[in-house]
Amino acid sequence: MSRLPVIDLDAVSSEDDILPVLKAILVNYDTFLLKNYANTLDTGSLGEIDLEQGFDANFTGTVQIEEHTYLEQYIATTDTSLQFDRACTDQGLNKISAKLLKLAIFFGQLALNAMDGTNDIDLEKHYSTKLTRYYSAQAGNMTLFDGESIEYLSPKNYTTHVSTGILTIFPQACGIRYKPITTSNDDNVWTVVDEPDCLLFHTGTYLQTISHGLHSTSPIQIDINRHNILHLTVYPEMGLQVGAEETIASLLLKQQIVELPSVGGTYYQDELSRLNLKKKIKFYGKLFATVETIVSLNYISKPRDMAMEVDKILVQCTNLMQNKITEDDFLKMLSIWPGVYNVEVNFNGELTVRLPFSNNLLKLTNNSRKLQYVQLIEAWYEKQLQRRHGAPAEDLDPVKFQKRHYHRDGLVKANKTTTRRTYISNSKDKFIFQEKRDDSQVNLLNRIKAKERTAMEELQLRESQYDKFLKVKMQKIMSILQTLVENEPYTMTYLNSLVVDSLRDGNNPISEEESEQCLLKIQQWLGEDTMRLITVKNGLKVLKWRGLNGVTL
Hints:
By secondary structure, this protein is of the alpha+beta class. The protein has helices at residues 18-28, 91-115, 205-210, 248-259, 261-267, 269-301, 310-321, 327-334, 367-385, 440-481, 492-503, 512-526, and strands at 6-8, 31-35, 61-64, 69-77, 128-136, 140-143, 149-152, 158-161, 167-170, 173-178, 191-195, 198-203, 220-223, 229-235, 241-242, 246-247, 308-309, 342-345, 351-354, 406-407, 410-411, 490-491, 531-535, 541-545. Strand 15 and strand 16 form a beta hairpin.
């Protein structure tokens, strides 16, 4: 069972018993499971989606989001001032939606009452919903030559989802990744949940807003390549005011623009630009706080006042933020506050950074500087939004520094014209052809052969080293295969995805191409009697094995 909290309906004697359990869960968690729900919610039997209905500015209908992946979505509300005309016509999907709606209203009402003692929202009468379904044209069943049927799983492709509602319900807790309670929202750390017999509930930002600090929520990731994965989110009525400037409808619109930028760019280009710029502003604020910490700690660890190279700062920022940080990002960050650091160029032509003050106590992490940077970048953002002429800037402009070049004698200076008169003279020896030696042709041939031998030796060495590299990987992959059920067919794409995910957090990650090479080598080494390789339609490879326990390479 997953490490998520579980509400077991078989252990609940009455509905009143659920409220204290749910409240205790929501104080610490934003995701929980529901076990032993009596009604079946099988999404595998759903048919293909209607590709002809299109997708409108209300973010309802069907739209292609990747090469083989489509999104089908419907929004409804009891608010008569704002209506969504498109309705779902799929009977199977409507049946599942109706069951999810009953659960969403029941648990959503409990969640509101648990987190807000003064709640006056009656979800039975006033609510909104968003039903979202991902459909992968590649996923599904496939029949092998021997008549056996297998489920073809596409490589995992997770998309991040931030709900602005009260609760989101998934009919099956599969193909989903959540953040452990010990991690920050900014950390790129996720935990996979695979509980097909349970429903999964995840809270939204509205519940966090009305909880007065009792509850916090985080993003969730959904594998959009998984066949027929769907979820339903329940909200208050669309017109409900949230804070001074927002409504449920405006928060949902912004969330949809961010998560579906191809649609948002078509209907809401200006709003998409503002949201993207706001996201970058937040990134530069986080980057400055990280750089400030790194530079301050550098002064503590160094015996003397030494400048720190920007390249080293970028490496540490990448590790801490778990996102690739470039020099261009760093220079854009500086443009908001150019004098925040003393930036110089050393004798290697590399940018270095010093703090602008000499007091050692001030060289420690200074929260006032971080706050001042946030104020400066927020002021710049507001100024961009208030521009009367032209669109707001798409990004910050990087600060420009001239990287100088040095050699042993000092700084390389620009070429200067000389006024000293000189005469041009060429020796006649340069124009006299030397007599070719008789063995010049032989020497040329020998040199060519020597180069060929050297190239061949280097190639053999690289191939030998690569084979050793694959052999190490093969041993780890064999351990993974031994944990799977034998005599079951597995597609190569599924195995590659499993291997890459399993080895991603280790010291030696592997690519899908390397994984496939290793699997094919393992199959050749074991032979057809132990591991069969079957190629089906569209060139898809399927592996099936037996007797791997105890086998070592």
